[in-house]
Each structure stands twice: as structure tokens, then as C-alpha cells.
Structure to design on (462 residues):
């Protein structure tokens, strides 16, 4: 189990070191794990993921030293499990930290504001005041959207926008229902809007969605640009229309009818946008951004995964709600079916349409990237030309993963799914999926049908 984790490399829950790090580095890593999703610091692994081990005669000295560092430098108290594990005859030292309940944790010497660290990807990052406030809310099991908002008077808010959304699905909604949904709260005999109500009605400066269609594969020149800055329902609907206007349609015959489909499944795009609206961090002064390039569509949502979720957690369908009230409202309105089903639905839809997508967590945002099935010639008069499915894609038609695979095959005659796991840093299932998709596109050819099967460049492409 641990060896498999090491083979995948460092991530949100794993840090690898060849030798014992400095005292402060150990403390920062332990604090970051405790504030985020927990994790393991493994000592005795080099930069190439080789198990080099530690001096067995010093194991107990190391354990005692690490315990003292954590006790002396971290606050509140963190109690990790520290143990030795034998891997292929070599001993590594493991410091396993669990997500804490006394959030936030920080360096005693620097205090809460300057000493709180979180884990982002495979790095430890200093948390700012907004992130610290978010961590403190997590400790109290509170969300930002539940809090009362004293900036907007209820009389100034158009509640009819939400009433109309319920009307569209044949449900009634009134003032009392909004209170039951926690969009309105009673405080000292006064009715107060919550942040969720202000967010839903688009009253915050950061609730808009910025959309752009760029020429080529960079942001140097844009062809079309729209900012949608009303309520969340309006923003969602118009962003979907923007995507429809700028993506290619393909047609296929079903029975006696001709059915048109977007090159990227519309429902997958919708799910990605819903996830961005519902799970983004509304305490950050940043907008959701939708960018269409010749090769990809990217949807960027401010904030990291909520409550310490890792990428693996999200891909497996685990759901943690950063905005409980907003999420519950969208569920009541039938925009979402069940918690944690969004990524599963996107995966299924993309697989059925032979479209690749990636979910990424960056230092300050989460992005979903869809790789376009068709490539567009440089736009002169707005003309769009889809590529032929029968011919080998040129380099402009390949997504980054496919380019890496072809580069690998220029020096290696064949590629196994295990090779691809190391090359791209992906899991086995994802590696098999990428290779299978390239075979379907006619780029690669699968040799063998057993577990030891491998892929080569298809003969007409070699």
C-alpha cells in the first residue's frame, strides 16, 4: 500500500524526503497536513522515487527528535503516528498526520496569522486571513454562505427571481420557504438575508462569470468576450449559451433521424459549471472564468477543494459542501440530483463521447479542462473547420497528454499502462483510459488482449 503511494509521487497527502528535513520544514509539513486532509511524511525516498531507506540504528533517535519538534513548534498540540516500515528490505520512517479538530494549527513562534500552513498539491503554503477564517468555520462546522449579511436590506432584494425558478419546476415558494432554506434568518426579532441569498441574487462583486473565446491556444487575442453579472441562474444559462455558440456541432444518424451534438457533451459542461458555482470560495475576490481555446475549454473556480478534500477524493465521488445553503437551494430546484454525482456524470458523459477531461487543483483555484475533439483553423472570417476522424492528428490536434505519449514512443517502441502512470503521474485506470482513447482515434494500436498487453504507434502513423 505505502509502496504504491510512493510510486505515484508527492501529492496533497504525501511528502517524500531522502533525509531528515530541517526542524521548521518538518513542523510546516505536519501543520499543513493537520489543517488540510492529513497525510504522510516519508523519510528514506530519493527524488527519483527510489527507496533508499534510513539508518536503522537511528530510527528511535529520529522518532524522538520528530516528536519533540512537533511538540515544541506546533500549536495546538498535534499527535501524529511515527513508525518504521520495511519496503523491499529497506526501512523508511513514516510520520502520519491526521486532520485535526482544533483548527487552525500553526507555528508557535510565528502565531496564527503568520504561521498557519495548508497543503496545496504537493507543497505547503502559508495561509492568508481568508483561508484562516475558512479553516475556523470548518472547525465550527459553519459555512460562509450561512452567515448573516448586514450589507443588503431584504426590501432591496428581488426574491421573485427565486420564486420564478421554483415556478419553472412546478413548485411553489414563499417567504417562509426561503427561511426554511436558510436564505433568510431571524436575528433579534429582525429578518436578515444570509450571504447565500446575496450570492444567489448576484449581489456580491465576485458572483459574475467571465467568458472569453480566444484565437489559437493562448490568451493573446480574444474573438468574443462576455461578462454575465446577474443572479446565478441567469449567469449559468447565458454561460451555457456562450459555450454552445463557440463549440462545434457534429451530426450522427440515430434510426431515421439526424442528431446534432456538441463536440463536448453539453451536460458535462453544465455539470462543471454547476460545480464551479456551488463549490467555489465566495470569500475570495475573484470570478469564475470560462475560456475557450482552439484546443481546450477551461472552467476556473476560485478556491481549493473544500474541507481538505484531495483530487482522488473528488474523483471517487466524495462530496464536501463549502456552500451548504446555496448547494441545498440548487438541489431543491433540481439542478443537481445527488451529492457527489457531478464528477461521476462528467466522467461517464466524456467517456461515451470519447472526450478527455482533467480536474486540477492549483494554489488558488480549481479548474476543469475539456480537450476539444475538433481543431479549428486560424479564424479569418469566423469559419470553423473540424478535423477528419480518419487521419492522424498533427501536433496541433493533440492534447498535452497525447503529445507526451508520442514523444515517448519516438524513443521507445511500445508503451504499457504502467509506463504511462509514471510518465503522466496518473492512476492505472486513467492510464488505460487514455491509451484506449488514442487507439480509438487511430493513433495507437493495442497488441495483445491479456494483462500484459501494450500499445504501439499504428502502422499508418509510424
Amino acid at each position: 500500500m505505502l509502496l504504491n503511494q510512493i510510486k505515484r509521487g508527492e501529492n496533497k497527502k504525501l511528502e517524500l524526503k531522502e533525509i531528515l528535513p530541517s526542524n521548521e520544514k518538518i513542523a510546516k509539513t505536519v501543520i499543513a497536513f493537520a489543517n488540510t486532509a492529513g497525510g504522510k511524511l516519508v523519510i528514506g525516498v530519493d527524488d527519483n522515487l527510489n527507496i533508499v531507506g534510513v539508518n536503522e540504528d537511528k530510527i528511535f533517535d529520529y522518532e524522538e527528535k520528530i516528536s519533540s519538534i512537533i511538540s515544541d513548534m506546533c500549536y495546538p498540540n498535534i499527535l501524529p503516528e511515527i513508525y518504521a516500515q520495511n519496503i523491499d528490505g529497506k526501512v523508511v520512517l513514516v510520520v502520519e498526520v491526521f486532520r485535526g479538530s482544533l483548527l487552525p494549527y500553526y507555528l508557535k513562534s510565528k502565531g496564527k496569522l503568520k504561521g498557519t500552513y495548508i497543503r496545496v498539491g504537493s507543497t505547503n503554503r502559508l495561509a492568508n486571513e481568508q483561508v484562516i477564517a475558512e479553516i475556523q468555520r470548518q472547525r465550527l462546522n459553519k459555512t460562509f454562505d450561512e452567515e448573516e449579511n448586514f450589507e443588503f436590506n431584504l426590501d432591496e432584494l428581488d426574491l421573485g427571481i427565486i420564486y420564478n425558478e421554483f415556478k419553472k419546476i412546478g413548485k411553489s415558494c414563499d417567504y417562509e420557504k426561503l427561511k426554511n432554506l436558510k436564505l433568510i434568518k431571524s436575528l433579534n426579532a429582525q429578518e436578515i438575508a444570509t450571504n447565500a441569498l446575496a450570492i444567489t441574487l448576484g449581489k456580491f462583486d465576485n458572483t459574475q462569470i467571465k467568458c472569453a473565446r480566444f484565437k489559437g491556444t493562448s490568451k493573446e487575442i480574444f474573438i468574443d468576450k462576455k461578462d454575465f453579472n446577474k443572479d446565478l441562474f441567469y449567469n449559468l444559462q447565458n454561460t451555457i449559451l456562450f459555450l454552445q455558440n463557440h463549440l462545434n456541432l457534429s451530426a450522427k444518424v440515430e434510426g431515421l433521424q439526424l442528431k446534432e451534438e456538441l463536440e463536448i457533451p453539453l451536460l458535462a459542461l453544465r455539470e462543471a459549471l454547476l460545480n464551479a458555482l456551488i463549490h467555489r470560495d465566495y470569500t475570495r475576490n475573484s470570478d469564475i472564468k470560462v475560456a475557450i481555446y482552439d484546443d481546450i475549454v477551461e472552467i476556473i473556480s476560485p478556491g481549493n477543494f473544500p474541507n481538505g478534500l484531495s483530487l482522488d477524493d473528488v474523483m471517487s465521488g466524495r462530496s464536501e459542501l463549502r456552500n451548504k445553503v446555496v448547494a441545498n437551494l440548487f438541489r431543491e430546484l433540481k439542478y443537481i440530483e445527488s451529492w457527489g454525482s457531478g464528477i461521476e456524470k462528467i466522467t461517464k458523459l466524456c467517456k461515451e463521447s470519447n472526450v478527455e477531461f482533467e480536474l486540477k487543483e492549483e494554489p488558488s483555484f480549481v479548474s476543469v479542462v475539456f480537450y476539444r475533439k475538433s481543431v479549428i483553423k486560424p479564424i479569418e472570417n469566423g469559419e470553423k473547420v473540424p478535423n477528419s476522424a480518419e487521419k492522424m492528428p498533427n501536433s496541433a490536434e493533440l492534447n498535452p497528454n497525447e503529445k507526451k505519449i508520442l514523444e515517448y514512443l519516438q524513443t521507445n517502441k511500445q508503451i504499457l499502462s504502467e509506463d504511462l502512470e509514471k510518465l503522466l503521474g496518473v492512476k492505472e485506470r486513467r492510464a488505460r483510459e487514455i491509451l484506449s482513447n488514442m487507439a480509438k482515434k487511430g493513433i495507437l494500436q493495442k497488441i495483445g488482449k491479456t494483462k500484459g498487453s501494450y500499445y504501439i504507434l499504428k502502422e499508418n502513423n509510424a
